[in-house]
Amino acid sequence: MTSRVRVHEWPLTVTDRVILDDGRAFAYKAQLPPSIEVEFYAAARGSLLPPHIEFPRIEGSAGRWIATEWISSPSLRELVDDPAFGTLTAAASIAERACAEISLLDPRLPVLRDIGGVDAWRTLAARTLDGLAREVDAQRYPGVHGADVRRLRDWSESLPVLAAVDTEAVIQHGDLTGHEVFPMADGPRVIDWQRPVRGPRGIDLANLLHDIGIDPRSHVDEALVQISRFLLIDWAVDASTEILPGADPAIPGSWVRQALVDFFTS
Questions:
Q1: SS3 of 203, please?
Q2: At how many degrees (to 10) do helices 146-156 and 222-238 cross?
């Protein structure tokens, strides 16, 4: 090994860029639950995901380790942020291709969240909204109110939402931004599969377009855009109630507030 540099860190994941003596570079990641990235890479097939190396479990540790081939090409987000890049129409086309490739993955792959079908959706929505209500009642999310929770409950049972989840269930990345998508000559690469979702196609495209500054509602049905924002609320509630219950809820609370702004902005 000639180099090892920390490139990302948060309470559940750290990522180092490692360069070996032979010049090969990898993203070396250590993760804690609920990430299922190691399991996802082990089961997935095809060129959409970069090549990887899985490391054995350490007895008595909840951690998992994986190394994925370092992608030196610019991400979609880096391309869009470059003044020399083309139009947002070109960016939208890249985003649509990447999301179409994701939807072709085997729907039986392991996922962290399953909203494939009305029953699965109702189970997740009830769990998330009950947790959100408890956090709001405890005043842990300033600026989020009981009326917001009630509005979300009504929305979760609306006909457009139920129709959206009552469609073919496909694999979705679940947390897709321009930083995870790398346009390549032979097709896109997509990284960071910690919390994939099984559900209606369109969730990833809504998230990705939102991240690169394109209004997703011009490409994705309104109900799917809102479902993509609801999954952010779900992640926030899970983070502050299950994953890191004793931690400062300021960051999860900010995710909820931003999701609500996006949610009801047309």
A1: helix
A2: 130
CB 241 within 8 A of CB 123: no
Q: Are residues 88 and 20 in the same domain?
A: no
| One-character DSSP codes across 122-147 | HHHHHHHHHHHHHHHHTT-STT--HH
Q: How far is CA 257 from CA 13, 128, 137, 237, 262, in A?
A: 24, 15, 15, 12, 9
Quote the number of domains for the chain: 2
pTM over 0.85: yes
pLDDT at 115 over 80: yes
Instruction: Identify the domain containing residue 144 by its residue range.
Output: 76-263
Q: Is 80 exceeded by the pLDDT of residue 266? A: no
**Which amino acid belongs to residue 60?**
G
Residue 219 · residue 101 · CB < 8 Å: no
Is 222 strand, coil or helix?
A: helix
Which residues make beta-bridge pairs with 171?
198
Q: What is the pLDDT of residues 39-95, one digit of tens each?
A: 999 999 999 999 999 888 887 788 899 999 999 999 999 999 998 888 889 999 999
Domain boundary among 11, 39, 69: 69
